[in-house]
Amino acid sequence: MLVGTIAKLCWSADDPDGLRLEYEVQLSTNNGMTWKTIARDLDRNCYNWLVDAPPGFHNLVKVIAQSPNDPWRVTGKDQSDGPFIIWDYPER
User: Fold this and answer.
1) Closest C-alpha to 9, from 75, 71, 79
2) Range of the domain at 49
3) What's 47's domain CATH number?
4) What rounded mean pLDDT belongs to the chain?
5) Considering only CA atoms, which of 90, 92, 35 is closest in space to residue 58?
6) How far is C-alpha 36 from the chain's CA centre?
7) Which of 16, 23, 48, 71 has the most crowded Cβ, counting Cβ within 10 A?
8) Mean of the pLDDT values across residues 25-29?
């Protein structure tokens, strides 16, 4: 990913009770030690993220799904399969 570009993040999720879900997208720049929310209250399962994180090699994205009817109940969460690089210049 390149700083200043749009990265389309997509996922799939279903609530076991058939409830509508809302999503929160989080970013870690340190291999999951800490997380920062980059979007919340999303009602679709894609998000166009303007990459504004610092360049680095230890980035992960996590999506948390929950029902707005029961905001304390997390239906599910998942994160990227492995770290990805954020560049501040185009790859050569």
Assistant:
1) 79
2) 6-86
3) 2.60.40
4) 92
5) 35
6) 10
7) 23
8) 98
